[in-house]
Amino acid sequence: MIYEIAEDVKKTIADKCDAYEIYIDESRVIELDTLKDELNFAKEEIELGVGIRILKDQKQGFAFTSNMDNLKDTALKAIENSKLTKVDENYSFAEVEKVNDVEKVYDDKFKDLSLDESVEFLKSSIATASDTGCEVTGAGFSASEGRSLIVNSNGVSIEDKGTGFGLGLSVTIQKDGEIATSYNSASSRFFDIDGEKLASEVCELAKSSLNTKPVETDDYSVVLDYYAAVGLLQTFISAFNGENVLRGRSILQGKIGSQITNPTLSIIDNPLLEKGMYTAKCDGEGSVSRQTDLVKDGVLSSFIYDIYTANKAGVETTSNGLRGSYLSTPMISPTNLEFRFSEMRDLSEIDKGVLTTSVLGAHTANPISGDFSVEASNAFKIENGELTEPISKAMVSGNIFEIMKSVDGLNSEVKQYGSFILPKLLVHDLRVVGQ
After folding, report:
1. Structure confidence at residue 239 (pLDDT)
2. 339-358 burial, b for 16+ CB within 10 Å, e for fewer?
3. Alpha-carbon span 145 to 297, nearest angstrom
């Protein structure tokens, strides 16, 4: 059906514009959310939509629809919308290239997954947390199947499909008048998430966070657990965005070939990664997926670009023009960001440190300078290589670009959270302010 849709749109606009791109997105989604431990939202939805971009007289037009009876009008609307935009010679569409296969991005189990089965899975995870003494304050489960087709006037025609599953739990526990909370989540291309294990870990973290003690203000070796690391790394990775670089909004502008991280660290944007949550045959504008070395042995190697920004910069696209859906045009975004360390440190090597599970206020970090001041959440002292007592409220401050120059990977499981695939991180001499 999606090929017939593309052909219908093509017939309408092929002779009315200089170039066209047709993006078709078909999805089935199951979403569940609870208020405390009671299900309060459940949705099973099938959606089909089309986004159409055209170029005419070096102007771009865009329109979209989810009404397949309205394809012709939508296509013509894209052409009309181009009249409202400015002339820009940097617009162009993807060219035909050899498409790489991707592995382990589709789970056949999704075909038989029902709403009732999804509800039972979520309830089982909640029950595990409750049985271990925690009160569930919120939980959610999602499962999705997506299929897309991108066709353009240069001859590109790429179909892709994949599945995704996610589970999240937040809990609270009270004891002797003290309250502790915690949250964690897991995602996978396959329905292989261990809900009971996740629930047990979330509850154990909350229990361990009771009876907190103040921490003395000082410089510490700080272990950033996955959520804490990802929260701070958002600012770091935004500096690799080609648009930010061109606009002078990146501190990394002009630093290609310079050392910007610990030489033990390489960072790869890898849309071809097996089982990666952002793995795909191509990006949202039909550029064939390719691996990009952003940092190699600590040295800045590349930024990330979509076609438009690459044209402005005079470089090749890195296939990072991603779409949220057919509702929008592509935007520069990372795919699977692999943080690979050639050497790893061990917790036993830390004499005086702090581990923070997550941080509050990471969004307030200065996107240009990289300065941040965040609140440590579910934090613990590290003494003589061992986790000891939980810490009451403390602030952690520093500069993300400075701390990355000496950051180490900690011996731990490598996990994917959002775009980031990484171990826990060890940051040296970070200021921790006790409260």
Report:
1. 98
2. bbbeeebebeebeebbbbbb
3. 37
Place of tokens 């296969």: 101
Residue 435: what pLDDT?
Answer: 77
The per-residue pLDDT for 60 is 98
Per-residue tokens: 422: 């990484």
Domain annotation for the chain: domains and CATH numbers: 2-206 (3.30.2290.10), 212-435 (no CATH)
Q: Which residue is it, tokens 């970090």?
A: 365
Ordered DSSP codes for 93-119:
-PPP-PPPP--S---GGGGG--HHHHH
Terminal Cα-to-Cα distance of the chain (whole angstroms):
61
Q: Which amino acid is at 256?
A: I
Task: Let me know: does 312 contact 332? Beta carbons within 8 Å.
Answer: no
- CA-wise closest residue to 42 among 57, 61, 29: 29
Positions of the chain with pLDDT under 70? none
Query: How many of the other CB atoms lie within 10 Å of CB of 335?
Result: 26
pTM exceeds 0.90: yes
Length of the chain in residues, anyone? 435
Nearest to 223 by CA among 372, 380, 363, 366: 380
Who's near 114: CB < 8 A, 6+ residues apart?
none
Nearest to 189 by CA among 99, 122, 273, 117: 273
Beta-bridge mates of residue 158: 150
Query: What is the side-by-side strand order in the sheet with 19-35?
Result: 59-65, 38-56, 19-35, 135-152, 157-175, 178-188
Q: What does the pLDDT read at residue 356? A: 98
